[in-house]
Amino acid sequence: MDLGIKGRIALVSGGDSGMGRESARLLLEAGARVAITDRAGGTLSDSLDDLKSAGEVIAVEADVTSTDSITALFDAVKTQLGAPDILVNAAGVTGATGDFLEVDDAGWLETLDINLMGAVRMCRAAIPAMRANKWGRIVLFSSEDAVQPYVDELAYCASKAAIQNLTKGLSKAYGCDNVLVNVVMPAFIATPMTDKMMEKRADEKGVGFDEAIESFLEEERPGMTLKRRGRADEVAAAVAFLCSERASFINGAALRVDSGSVQTMAM
Questions:
Q1: Looking at residues 54-58, what average pLDDT do you find?
Q2: Which structural domain range is residue 124 located in?
């Protein structure tokens, strides 16, 4: 299916692995020119090497907690490719976890700074050029946790609920400029983040990695009817669609990619 974005310029944060990397891959395969970004010291260069065969791609290190770093990022992308028409903000962390009464302000603020304010800063940098060009696509990353919070990761849940609200607000503010803003809501996807979760669970329970996944699905995610972790490319397919001309009448929507984990009618 032709997504109608050949030649468009896309910027993907969190592009060093997982859902960000696979979103970049599908955008490249659709003909977009792509910049991937992530913090220094990670696997961004590995991701760049992996994606080069799919199309024109560059990598620029940046920190979403720094306005100056984001300004430098957009300047570099504009110089090398042009102003982004598409923004996919996949950067995020699990952040502070544990009993609510034991998570301090620093834990909350770090989680919100990366997950929520990182998205705010990226959108603030991207939207002016999209408005001027009368075409833009923004896809933010929320989570099932936004609408069914888990008590041991409330900072993460709150940050993702805020992303839902931010998405709806931006869609109302800039839809008139043909800048469409939507959100994807993954649940338990096979990524480095959930690998760490399952490694910790395996150690705590004294079981193997696969057994940890099985018990987690049974005990913590009973609504996931497919009884497996999702794949990063399954989320990326939803992202690529929302970035495309095929989604030209979708604005302010939340697309769940969660195997049925959310068991309510809520957004």
A1: 98
A2: 9-187+231-257
